[in-house]
Structure formats: C-alpha cells, structure tokens
Amino acid sequence: MGTPEGTKDHNSQIVKLLQLIGCFGAYCHLEGLRDSLEKAQLGLRVDETITSLLMRFVLHFTKEDHNVSVRTAAIKSLLLISSHHPKMFLSKPVMKLLNTEFEKGSHRMKVTILEGFNSFLSMEDEESGKRNLEESCSSDKKLDVDVFHGTSHGYINDSVCSSLIQSFIGPALELCLQDASSLSLVPVRFLELIMKLGFANPKVCAPTIIALESSPNKYVKGIAFNLHKDIFDKHESLADRNYAEAFKIAVNYNKRVNGDEFWKNVSFLRSVYKIVSRNYASKKRFILSLARLFTVDISSGDLAASANTRDMIVFLVLNLSVLPFSSLEEVCLILYHLDRSITHEGIDLADKVTSTVGSNTGEGMSVENLQLLFVHSQSTLALVYLRQTLSAAYAVPSSIMETFSPSRPDIELRQQPKAVTLVDFPLENLEMEVNLSRPDAFGSLFTRFVTSVKDFTV
Questions:
Q1: What is the rounded CA–CA span in Å between residue 44 and residue 60?
Q2: 42 found inside a domain
Q3: pLDDT tens digits for 208-245?
Q4: Where is the Sister chromatid cohesion C-terminal domain (predicted)?
C-alpha cells in the first residue's frame, strides 16, 4: 500500500491523464489513427469509434470507489467529449451515470454536470446564431435534404438538447433554489440558456424564475428579472397564472438563504411589480394572486404548516407595505380582500383566543393548542397591520371602502396617488423572535391581537 503522499500524487496524475483524454476526444479527429490504435491492443472493439473507446476509459474512473477529484475530472472529461459528440450524451452508460448523480450525488457534482451542460448549450447558442445569420443572408432557399430527413447536425443536437432538458430540468430547478452563493449562478445560467434556446417549457420554469427575483445575489436576481420579463411579453397569461406558486417558492427560498431574517427582503414584489405594472389587467391579477394567500386556516392542527403560512404572510405583507402602487384602485383592492379575511377568520380567531385564555376549566390550554393560536394570531395580526399601514400611507378614507367593489370599477380610483406618506410597518409587534416552546411568553401578543381585531370591527 502506498503512502498518502504517494496516493495523492498518483491521483493527480490520473486527473491530468483524464483531462488529456477529454481534450483528445473533444478536439482531435482520431479515426485516421485507427490502425495504430488497433495494433496497440487498447481494447478497441469492431465497429467501435475511437470516441467511444475514450468514453469507456473515462467512464471507468467515474465509479464511486475512485477519489472525488478523480471522479470529478472524469465527469468533466466525459461532458467535454459529449459536448463535441452530442450523441454520446444519450448513450445508456452516460445517461445512467447522469441520472445516478442527480439522484444521489453531491451538490457540487450536480453543479459540475450543469457546468458541462452549459458549455454544450452555449456552443449550441453560438451555432444557432450562425445558422440563423447564414439563412437570413442566403438567397438560395433550396431544400436541405439532411434537415428534411432529420439527420443534420443541427437537428441531432436539438434532439439531444430536448432529451437532456426533459430528463434533468426538475433537478436543475431545485438547484437554482438551493442557495444564493456563486455556485447558484450555474443552474440559473442553465435555466437562462434553455429558455433562450426555446427548449424549456415556460409553464414549468415560470414559478422558479419569478421566485428567483427575490434572490440576494444581484446577478441571479438580474437574470430572473429579464427571464420573467421575456415570459410576460410572450406569454402574459402564463406568468399571471403562476404568481401564487412563485410567491410560496420565494418565501421558502428566502428562508433557506437568509434564515430567520428572511423577512428583511422587501424588494421582491417591487421587482415583480415593475413587470406587471405595465398592464392594467395584469396588475389586477397580480393583486388577486396575493389576496388568495391572505387566508389563515384557523382550524389547522398542523403547527409546521401554520408556521409556514405565517412566514409567507409576514414576508408578503412587508413587501406590500413598501410597494409603490400606481393607482388607488390597487390599494383599495388589497384593502377589500384584507377586510374580508380579518372580518371572517380574524373575528373567529379572536373569540377562540379569548375563550381559551380566559377558560376557568383549562380547556384548550395544551401547549400544542396555544402554539397554534399564537402562530395564527401572528398571521392575522400581520394582515391587520398591513391594512392599517396601507390605508394610512395612501390616505384611504373609510367612506371609499364602504362603497368599493372589485366588480364595479371606479375610473377616479385608477388615477395615480397624489401623495403617499411613509408609514413604518410595526414588525416588532408580531414578536417573531418568541420561542414557540415557551407558551408563557404568548400573553402580550394575544392581548395585542384581540384588541386590534376589536378595534378594527368597531
């Protein structure tokens, strides 16, 4: 057995050899050396191409019993060769390897594979641009027989791209949302390329794209904004239908990358609004998508689900509290739906809190029930505070809301607000820092919530 230093040196030699094989397979035309390779007895099979032989060598070093650096080098070389010989991507050994890595491999290895895909797609993007330029400049419109029969280089590569994307779009979208580090740019770049080349289904990608506008990484955010704008311009209704799902994904993404301070990101909806605000109908659908998420299921006994709903509501109301609405009608529409939520679930919840906390028999005073009441109260109180913040900021009198109806548009309300007052959202009153394992700390929020709901209904 060799020393650790010897093993390390041996592995580095293998890595260099794999890199060399990758370059030979990608950039060199080796079929002319077939006779020499056959005489060298390297295992070249009858009717096997030299490229296939090199791929077999490389695949051997992708096995799990090899060092990570060796496996990484092997996969990089495999992807490099396949990028220049695209049919190799669809061979059974390669597809089996890629499927295994996306199912069980490390995060870094998945990103490495997507880097290889990106190189291939970038080459296709460049070739596609050249083909389009040649077609536009050529006056000869004769039928290309290879294209007609589906055997042209471009047709084959398109088929490979479609197959790869169909197989791995799911894992790629998940990787986009794993973190906001520099590594996250790789799957996001993959998403950008497949959208640009037209191989991706916008319906599948839209929720993730919109959610990525909430990224703290400015490059990711910029790519997502441009992709969302492109979807909106080409498939407006498709974007509209995906907002609710996108908002949920955005909240979970921000919780993953920002931890307990996820709510500090208040620029997300502003980014989305820049796109939808160009169209009256889209603005309305955008607000209705948000309004559907204002519902608090006070009958839920699932604490984790209730906490997720609370986090989503807090994230969205903080974003809405600083959104520069372009008309009073939009503000009134939000207030209208807030009023409905508060007067239904809010009043029922306030009664439930009052009867539970004031119970002489101790009914409902279990830790689990108190935790649920606390989380539901936080959610509903956030809606109450948003209602107060927006009505004060835009100076919306109660008389307007008494007659407002979404089904009866008021042309005057479509005018741009004359003046907007900056009103701070009282986030500290939601007591988001309270540990749910300490029910003795719930009292002040319960009191604040019940009082706020009573004041609202007076």
A1: 15
A2: no
A3: 999 999 999 999 999 999 999 999 999 888 877 889 99
A4: 161-340
Residues 194 and 55 in one domain: yes
Reference 116, options 62, 49, 44, 156; nearest CA is: 62
- When computed from its CA atoms, the radius of gyration of the chain, rounded to whole angstroms, is 29
Q: Helix 268-276 to helix 280-291 angle, to the nearest 10 degrees?
A: 140
Do residue 444 and residue 306 come from a single domain? Answer: yes
Look at the chain and report how many structural domains it folds into.
2
Considering only residues 97 and 411, tell me which one the structure prediction assigns the higher pLDDT.
97
- The answer to whether residue 278 is domain-embedded is no
Asked whether the predicted pLDDT for residue 23 surpasses 80, the reply is yes
Residues 300 and 170 in one domain: no
In sequence order, what are the residues at sequence separation of 6 or more whose Cβ sits closer than 8 angstroms to the Cβ of residue 205?
169, 173, 191, 194, 195, 227
Other C-beta atoms within 10 Å of 2: how many?
A: 9
The torsion angle over the Cα atoms of residues 225, 226, 228 and 234, rounded to 10 degrees, is: 160
Reading the block at residue 18, the tokens are 């794999």
Range of the domain at 167: 50-128+149-200
| Nearest alpha carbon to residue 270 among 321, 312, 311, 236 | 321
| Contact (Cβ atoms closer than 8 angstroms) between residue 205 and residue 195 | yes
Q: Which of 12-16, 58-62, 130-134, 348-352 has the lowest mean pLDDT?
A: 130-134
Which stretches of 147-221 are assigned E, i.e. beta strand? none
Q: Considering the domain boundaries, does residue 259 fall inside one?
A: no
pLDDT at 435: 95
φ, ψ for residue 404, nearest 5 deg = -70, 140
